[in-house]
Amino acid sequence: METRSNSNSYIGDVAMRKIIEVSNVSKEYGGTGAFRALKDVSLDIMEGEFVGIMGPSGSGKTTLLHMMSTIDAATSGKLLVDGHDIARIKEKEAARFRRDTIGFVFQAFNLLDNMTVRDNIALPLSLNNVKAAVILSKIEELAGILGIIEQLDKYPYELSGGQKQRAAICRALIASPKVIFADEPTGALDSKSSSEVLECLKSINHKLGTTIIMVTHDATAASYCDRILFLKDGSIHGRLDSDGNKMELFKRILNMLAVMGGSNYERL
């Protein structure tokens, strides 16, 4: 008799492993009369998914991202990342867990202007004393996927915004994380650069199988995702699944935002 783990879901006979499990998670800020940023949120994210999180300002989407990425701790509930209960990880182990499991991409590129792009990308592995030959090989591979081979020996201030973000994505990927958390990764970019960055994210999701969780206000950016979760007032208000038609998903996202009162969203 076949036994199926609770941490797996099945499509046909193919096991889909849960990389993140959020169970009744709440987050409160303040003491008496505390503000509840998240209210008993539950969700699963499968390994290899590209998931978008949308919601108006104050909806709890960034708070949820911070909970899942171990930047902040939940007030109550349970949160597993790659099978680890992150509330129980000891402080000494936390840095290693983040280094080995999680990558971050933010709206601000956080590149060091006094280092070349190559050295910026290499930094996480250099700090962990990985052999130079291994680092250089990984940089070439990832830079090829992200289309920044010709920018490797330049400095960040010589790059366009889109090139900087692709370099930041490359740096986030260099340690082969299982999950990339992206917080408004196209928020500071023009439409052309945004499209290039989103195509790169989609490419690494497909080619490397990296799970990506992206917070965005932008319906165009969200249309690149496999699935979008919509938050409102600290709770999940709805979800949409892609059928592979990006334009159709874009229209459905706009409809969902209209239902939620999304007049403040970008409609690109």
TrEMBL record:
The keyword Repeat appears for this protein: no
Matching entries from InterPro entries are given as:
AAA+_ATPase, ABC_transporter-like_ATP-bd, ABC_transporter-like_CS, ABC_transpr_LolD-like, MacB-like_ATP-bd, P-loop_NTPase
> What keywords appear on the UniProt entry?
ATP-binding, Nucleotide-binding, Transport
Cite the GO molecular-function annotations of the record: ATP binding
Domain of life, per the record?
Answer: Bacteria
Which CDD domains does the record match to this protein?
A: ABC_MJ0796_LolCDE_FtsE
What's a Pfam family this protein contains?
ABC_tran
Residue span, ABC transporter domain: 20-258
Q: What is this protein called?
A: ABC transporter ATP-binding protein YxdL
> Species name for this entry?
Paenibacillus plantiphilus
Q: What is the lineage of its organism?
A: Bacteria, Bacillati, Bacillota, Bacilli, Bacillales
